[in-house]
């Protein structure tokens, strides 16, 4: 490998040398060397990526039987209603699947989520599923409630607002966040605020089912969803819409109706 890289450097340097040496200066030399080094570094990076892909391909073949065995055992435990053992085996399969991609992870994550309660894993399950922790028993106390509200967000994000509820005491935002990697960490910054079209900024007052930075709430598997609530002070009575902003982040939700 080293011989190949040296050859790339020498050939590149030779090709870059000018036909008329009298026009050559120190800046030209430095610029040429930098350019050739860039080519060499790119060649090294490409070779390393290729080697890494080859290793992953070999490992995928090597661990495929382990994945298949875990899936077979998981289904057998599920058929006999041994939920806890089934869950452990599906998670064992998911660890391999997230790394090597043997099957559809959406389906596997849904299966794992469905077994949380059955497998006595309520501490994991309800924090991920749509659950009572983040659903008020009675929304009648709010003068305005809208599910799946319309808003503007020009930045790509895994979060979406699923409910807005406004009362004379508070403004409640319920959000849903979908993980895109194993053990995906999420938190809310204390700098989050809402701003109505008839008033100034209102700072975050409290949260439900999620942690404040710097602590993180972790979602075990890709495509599982965490639903949580953010509580802000009440918007002015004459406000008709507002923005929800977390500065320096992709959470820039604008033009949410509140009346």
Low-confidence stretches: none
Question: How many H/I helical runs?
Answer: 5
What fraction strand? Answer: 15-25%
Largest sheet: number of strands, sense, barrel closure = 5 strands, antiparallel
- The counted number of beta strands is 11
Provide the residue-averaged pLDDT. Answer: 86
Radius of gyration: 27 Å
- What share of residues is helical? 25-40%
Q: How are the strands of the biggest sheet laid out side by side?
A: 1-2-3-9-7
Explain this structure.
By secondary structure, the chain is α+β, with helices and mostly antiparallel strands. Helices cover 39% and strands 22% of the residues. The strands form 3 sheets. Strands 1-2-3-9-7 form a 5-stranded antiparallel sheet, with no helix packed on it. Strands 6-5-10-11 form a 4-stranded antiparallel sheet, with no helix packed on it. The termini are far apart.
Which features does this protein show?
four-stranded antiparallel beta sheet; five-stranded antiparallel beta sheet; about 20% strand; alpha+beta; flat; about 260 residues; 5 helices
